[in-house]
Amino acid sequence: MAKWPISFRKTVQSVWTVLTNGYIVGFFRGKIYTGKLKNMCVPGLNCYSCPGSLGSCPIGSLQAVLGSAKYKISFYLLGFFLLIGTLLGRLVCGFLCPFGLIQELLYKIPFIKKIRTFRLDRPLRWLKYGILVVFVMLLPLFIVDAAGTGSPWFCKWICPAGTLEGGVPLVSTNPALQSVIGFLFHWKLAILLVTILLSILIYRPFCKYICPLGAIYALFNKVSVYRYHVDQEKCTGCGKCEKACPMQISPVRETNHLECIRCGECKGGCSFNAITSGFSFGSKNKGKNS
Amino acid sequence: MKAGVKSSGKRWKRSTDKILMWQVLLFMAGVLAFAVGIYRDEVRTVLMKAIYICLECIGIG
Fold it and tell me: Is the CB of residue A27 less than 8 Å away from at least one CB of chain B?
């Protein structure tokens, strides 16, 4: 039997991206889906102004509720993050995020030299937590207009996913929008171009350094029900898993690390089947890495 | 030697119990918060934002 040409993870990522952006007619009409499905958030970063989007972006929704005059805390989004985070952790980043898939595909473009790590790599990983607190929470909450409404600061000034999934397709098909583009659109387009170029050089740079949604799910990685396990009796300490990890962590020393997106590359790299993953209540890891 | 294995086993059980406790606690808190959010009609705010083109998100205004 012929082997399926793409990996299981890539298949899930692709199917999920198509399913959650299935309003194809929106791309031709330059309009977005306005049905009731948008009551619900999708787990990954997926702009709700993407013409195909059938669900809401959790980061956009969080800013919308925090920035509204009516609410100053969002229990709905808090509950959503607690449920998804506790069950899946950053499995969402590895399997259910369309913008993650786009970056991975860009990284497949051949280039003279790919950058695995650099001097400020590790410290820069903390930047996403700062962006989460300042741009997603504090600024929409406290910088408000006369009506008491705050802007979605992250979406407005940073998010390249919104430009790629929403801005570019809508502006290119909607003449009314074309007539009002200005500095902000060019600024966001520049951020998108930088993100695209960096994604060719570095594996998922937006996820590593910028994504506030990844920062939220990372907080659950240590306790999420879906988790990785290292069998200390099978592990020989050869370091192959560390070399295979595209997020540059050590699956043996740092099992279920904040940066682990559960991509499974380490499992494939291990010749001794010492690394396994699955849904488990409590920890199966017996030893120092539990 | 036996004592060492026994104490390591105890440590592992304690860590397993702790993770399980966090999983149950966070999941229950999630269900509760989600329900409170629906009760407070936050869903309407999410829907209202999502069904109109978000001009900030696409870089217009």
Answer: no
